Amino acid sequence: MAQPLRYHTKHRQQILEYAKKNQGKHITAAQMCEYFRQQGKSIGLATIYRQLEHLVEEGLLHKYITDSTSSACFEYREQCNSAHCIHCKCIRCGAFIHVECSHLEDWNLHLQQNHRFQLDFGRTMLYGVCENCAL
Amino acid sequence: MAQPLRYHTKHRQQILEYAKKNQGKHITAAQMCEYFRQQGKSIGLATIYRQLEHLVEEGLLHKYITDSTSSACFEYREQCNSAHCIHCKCIRCGAFIHVECSHLEDWNLHLQQNHRFQLDFGRTMLYGVCENCAL
DNA sequence: ATAATTGCAAACACTTTGCACCTGT
DNA sequence: ACAGGTGCAAAGTGTTTGCAATTAT
């Protein structure tokens, strides 16, 4: 459980900053890598993975896995109160939708009180049909 | 989007049967493959993956991914024709909980009207902590 | 001085695919 | 006959790791 001491490196800071800047979005390691490359301050993909792992361990980022075929997504945690956001996936087009909704807390409360089940929004994916595919 | 017609093959039946027999357990493709091998009726891993994909598409099985490093798990989905039931799974003990709740329809309506997402209860699994594990 | 971080390439594990053949309809 | 299924091996994908050099403490 004892985590090694984390050094305050430039890369760590850049990655965290980029994640913060993209609050509410789901970013993959590859996307980050590409972004930094375009900015002329390339960071090795392995480094990004290692830093993301650290940041998730420290609770600064949240990691989401939707599909075994596609890559994991990371998201800065501060504003994404896990009690207010949930992830939906369209069973037709595969779109990944982030829903922020104050009702979610009520649902969780209801499930807890009436059905004795404590929902974990971070791990739950709602499947259904998105706006475009419903037409 | 039109799914091709699925033939009733021996392998399809064996895979579905095995999944049914293991309701409430989470099984990987590799585990299935090993099981059939031990039974002297080997099925190629690729075939298993292809059939599992079909069965998930048809809504007979549920697929879930917890970790990007480990393999996806499959589970027989209890048939439930009511619009008032949803399935929950405990992330600690793996318990499979069937929740019947009249509120579900309201949630679906809310998601549809406010977030333009049409939830499919049959394919959705809620992850969280069950009564016993919450203690 | 010591411990963590980095980049690269190679290794990894799970999953998908191309192809030739087989089977269900 | 045709569309879908199968097995094998090969390819693909996202992620991790070994190593030697670098950087933070």
Look at the structure and name the CATH superfamily of the largest domain in chain A.
Winged helix-like DNA-binding domain superfamily/Winged helix DNA-binding domain
| Shape summary of chain A | globular
Number of helices, counting only DSSP H or I runs of 4 residues or more of chain A: 4
Into how many domains do the coordinates of chain A divide? 2
Outline:
2 copies of one chain form a homodimer. By secondary structure, the first copy, chain A, is an alpha+beta fold. The first copy, chain A, is built from 4 helices and 6 strands; from the N terminus they run αααββββαββ.
Note the main attributes of this structure:
homodimer, 135 residues, alpha+beta, Arc Repressor Mutant, subunit A, Dna Ligase, domain 1, 3-stranded mixed β-sheet, two-stranded antiparallel ribbon, 4 helices, 20% strand, globular, DNA-binding
What does it look like?
Chain A is α+β, with helices and mostly antiparallel strands. Chain A folds into two domains: 10-75, Orthogonal Bundle (Arc Repressor Mutant, subunit A); 82-134, Ferric-uptake regulator, C-terminal dimerisarion domain (Dna Ligase, domain 1, 2-Layer Sandwich), CATH 3.30.1490.190. Helix content of chain A is 36%, strand content 20%. In chain A, a hairpin with an 8-residue loop joins β1 (61-64) and β2 (73-76). In chain A, α1 (10-21) packs across α3 and α2 crosses α3. The longest helix of chain A has 13 residues, at 45-57. The mean pLDDT of chain A is 85. The A-B interface holds A 65-68, 71-72, 88, 91-92, 97, 99, 101, 103, 107, 110-111, 114-120, 123-131, 134 and B 1, 65-68, 71-72, 88, 91, 97, 99, 101, 103, 107, 110-111, 114-120, 123-131, 134. β6 (125-129) of chain A pairs antiparallel with β6 of chain B. Chain A binds a DNA duplex (25 and 25 nucleotides) through residues 4-12, 28-30, 42-47, 49-51, 53, 68-72.
